[in-house]
Amino acid sequence: MVENLNIEVSPLPRVEGHGDLVLDVKNKKIEKLQVRIPESPRFFEAMLVGRLYNEPSHITSRICGICSVAHTFTSLKATEAALGVTLNDLILSLRKLVNYGECIQSNCLHVYFLAVPDFLGIGSVIPLVESNPAVVNIAVKMKKIGNELVRVLGGRAVHPITTVVGGFTKLPTTEDLHYLRDMLVSLYPDLETSLKVLKTLKIPDFERETEYICIYDKDEYALYDGDLKSSDGWTIKPQDYLEKISESVVEHSTGKHCRASRDSFMVGSLARTNNNFSQLSDNAKTYAAELGLKTPCYNTFMNNIAQFVELVHCVDDGIKIIDNVLNMGLDENKAMVNVKAKAGRGVGIVEAPRGSLIHDYTYDSDGRILKANLIIPTNMNYANIEKDLYKLVPMLMEKTADEIKLGCEMMIRAYDPCISCSTHFLNVTLINE
Amino acid sequence: MSKPKVGVFGLTGCGGCQLEVLNLEDYLLDFLNAVDVVHFTEAISEHYDTYEIALIEGSVTTNHDIERLEHIAKIAKVIIAVGSCACNGGLNCLKNLYGTQKAKELVYGDKAGWIDSIDAKPIDSYVKVDYYARGCPPTRSEIVNIVTSLIMGKTPEIPAYPVCVECKRLGNTCLYEFGMTCKGPISRAGCNARCPSARFGCVACRGPVDDPNVNAQKDLLERYGLTVEDLKEGFNLYNSFKQIEQKSK
Asked: pTM value?
């Protein structure tokens, strides 16, 4: 049992980017609890000023190598909205496929390399290599297939090339699409194996209802496009996001904090499954039921399960999209639509693997950016992470300092995982030698 | 022979270069058989200050970056700059173009004073760099080639020819034929003409080639009715550091 506790975890291991946790407890009371983000600020909103409309997607892709597809598409959508560009079905379908690639890659890494060891109470995936090597192979294979979707369609796995304002510089061939389809189909036995492993996980008991925000499309489970929807009952057009979401600068972090209807909200897989569950593929719903994901779900730790359920959805819907595109035919004349510079404002929102991502650009009549505003999902989650920790720490007070520290780390990782996974990836390979 | 100890570090950047190391997938096992990774900011929790070869991603944009970089340089025997940010300053230097103080005020308003940020620079502005794996991001094989050459005691071969050489070798139709501009004729190769192959004009993310054939480029522009201004558009995306430096001379 702990009465006084002073924890500083710096940097937080296995999270993408640089974050620190500061926790100070005196006489069982939390004196200080902060998730600090000392990551170097980049100033993309300033870098974008004056740039021609065909450049922002390439510039903002460089905000994050891990979410480069989400940034690329959010940026393209903002620009296309400002310039009044309407895309055809072929372009939209291929973009959704590229987006699924990133989602598969990112979600799989989080689930397998982060969630599995954390929830099994082991320090890393290494013990699992001996007891269940199949899982490690599955993770490597899935990551590669996610990357291949982006590489084949986008020209490069990190910072895609072909995806530009108005469409694609180059279309895949029919053979490319069959290659990708075969790879996706080959994942089904792996999903079954994964289900067995995930079912054995002990997800910690925790509940804190909050506001859940993501995009919504009446016709499909929205990841690429839609209106902004809140579990607090409102839905707004992307361009009206400022009516609901506000940002503020906090001293301990270069990442701004966000609010909507309340003093914090959550974005990411759990927010999406909470808000749009009925639109998941039937297969994904079956997996959700098997894994005990009942929506609305207020246990943040279940975000890991929601990520896996979404991964299943991406595989199912990815195959469906490929079949549609093969039916449609790959007409080079449909790869691009006309784009012309004009003055105006446009907002793009895409669901990055870890939540809604917003780009808001204003262009002058030459097609150069006058003003840009970017809101990153992790910023949206900060305030909610701190609120979850305020609830979690008192629940853990009877445990040892190490267990409290681990509990807090797990909670943070439940939101923002990503590269975390690769930690174990490297270790595993070393052991294999 | 004991395996060389390697550290992988990230200063200010997107993490994409480190991700490309992790994306080695097919080579990763061989790579890790050849080296002993003792530090990897993005991927491993345990860190040791015993590295002989340091792969550094990102540019220097904070005082904290300078401290870290100088610490790494004291320990490492060989420093490899990885990616445009580390090699040329990269995209981060667009902030310098805008003005660092102005940028702080634009993004953080009256709280700008809380933010540690200095003009973005490539890492060789502070420490001696032995090899450059250029590009945004570099190709996976470029990184592997440099490290394996070092292990075998060879000098890594870094292309000193323009992107056009690689593009022609692939049999691509010149993008100027499609009415596009491409900086391939004056830009450093090494990417296997990745962008022109995807029908996207080269943006010189590896910087200009050492001794560019400027006249050939001018002839090309003239032949397709384009001007030097057309070519200049977007050149500063990855190369603004050098441009600002040249202007101030």
From this structure: 0.91
